[in-house]
Write a structure and sequence with these properties.
Blueprint: H1 17-30, H2 33-45, H3 62-69, E1 84-94, E2 97-106, E3 109-119, E4 126-133
Antiparallel strand pairs: 1-2, 2-3, 3-4
């Protein structure tokens, strides 16, 4: 009798290696602060979470930027297609600072989001200090 499987289970199939690898990659990326913040910002800007959900995770002007952006829910699902974080990259202009960019996909629509993270004085906590969504810049001249 094989004791490595649950009693009564006769199915010998296991998940494919690709599924396990993608789950591991997803877990690894959530350990990185820019991915964690991108997911939270996406939740607020798509209307799934209220703005005050980011209150303790923002500093300076970033919270005010979210307050201005969130009511319009610029990343709200289009045609019932939930927006997802496709990719998030990072740049380190100095110690304790991450400037990140993210590609948000919703169906065939792709939106860019950029944000800045600054590490607190205790070096244990990251906070968002700026947020910008893709599209036309406010005050841009042609």
């Amino acid at each position: 009798m094989d004791r490595t499987r649950p009693a009564g289970r006769r199915d010998q199939r296991r998940p494919p290696a690709a599924v396990a690898a993608s789950a591991l990659a997803r877990a690894r990326r959530q350990d990185r602060p820019h991915y964690w913040f991108a997911d939270r910002l996406l939740a607020v800007l798509s209307g799934r979470r209220p703005v005050h959900w980011m209150l303790g995770h923002t500093v300076g002007e970033a919270y005010e930027q979210l307050v201005r952006l969130a009511p319009g829910a610029p990343l709200r699902p289009a045609d019932r297609v939930t927006p997802v974080l496709r990719h998030c990259g990072e740049f380190h202009p100095g110690p304790g600072v991450i400037e990140a960019f993210a590609r948000i996909g919703s169906g065939d629509r792709v939106t860019a989001m950029a944000f800045r993270l600054e590490q607190g004085p205790d070096d244990l906590r990251w906070r968002c200090s700026a947020v910008e969504l893709g599209g036309e810049r406010v005050g841009a001249r042609e």
